Automatic annotation (TrEMBL):
Its EC number is 3.1.2.-. This is 4-hydroxybenzoyl-CoA thioesterase. The keyword Chloroplast does not apply. GO terms for molecular function: fatty acyl-CoA hydrolase activity. Belongs to the 4-hydroxybenzoyl-CoA thioesterase family.
Length: 130
């Protein structure tokens, strides 16, 4: 499981002073990017050398409780399933012991033409080792 911290800033909140719902998607995106970086995978390098990028194919999300200005959040990301062409991740955002947001995210690998491609073996090996 990978953990990533994010602080809630004023710009993340709405008129009611709580995190605007779409910002949770940004938080989990940052966490996924940092997880892949921590695994030693350079996404820009994959694009430049192999012509592949990752894209969200499907997402299920549950908003469970609000986060507020200045909260320190932890985004936990864990591998749920791995196939030759897809990663399915479980991600949740917590503040202390309280889970605020949970999502299951399916990622696919796309080539330069936007067509499905196999996941890079280095990523598969790194994910399986964690």
């Amino acid at each position: 499981m990978h953990r990533f911290q994010v602080r809630v800033y004023y710009e993340d909140t709405d008129l009611a002073g709580i995190v605007y719902y779409a910002n949770y998607l940004k938080f989990i995106e940052r966490a996924r990017s940092e997880w892949i970086r921590d695994l030693g995978i350079d996404q820009a390098g994959l694009r430049d050398s192999l012509g592949i990028v990752f894209a969200v194919r499907h997402l299920e999300a549950d908003y469970l409780a609000p986060a507020r200005y200045d909260d320190l959040l932890v985004v936990e990301s864990a591998l749920h399933a791995l196939t030759p062409a897809r990663l399915v991740l479980d991600q949740r955002v917590s503040c202390g012991e309280r889970v605020l947001f949970a999502a299951r995210v399916t990622l696919v690998c796309l080539n330069e033409l936007g067509r499905p491609a196999r996941l890079p073996q280095a990523l598969v090996a790194a994910m399986q080792a964690n």
